[in-house]
Amino acid sequence: MVKEYPSNLNRDQFDLFSDLLPPAKPGGRPRTVDVYAVINAILYVLVEGVRCRALPGDFPPWQTVYMYFRNWRKDGTWQRIHDRLREWYRIEQGRQPSPSEAVIDSQSVKRAAGVNAAVGFDAGKQIKGRKRFLAVETLGLVMAIFVTAASTPERDGAKTLLPRVKALKPRSIQRLSPVCRGLQSQQSE
Fold it and tell me: What is the pTM of this model?
């Protein structure tokens, strides 16, 4: 890469999680792309809010960047990176690596232009759009998220989100507190 962008990681930051990135596949053509440049291209897209096709020319080709992003999403690489960074931040704050308590809440947001998948109407909040269910630990760091149509009831969204929280390793969550009224009333049933 020729130009430095504000979204770029330095090599020391990249080395914190580079061991979690899948190695090149054996056989076939050897990998010629620099994975460090791919990570910086993905961060550029996320931070600057541009399409992959709008990547500047000093990044790898947009098709390559998108392929790596998609493959790492499918194989869980992004989740492993996120979990490691969360653990390291907790240790830096003087906490145990894994939280013992989490909070779950939901939020309905209006539909963005061009988004037609999983859109519904939240009658309680009078919003047509999507709903996100979020589990965060005591420092406010994200543990799990589930996005669906706004018409999804809190109970159904929580039922989908809870197994994701329970599946986190290590399993140290001892208490999960609901924030929204719909989840609190359902918890007492």
Answer: 0.77
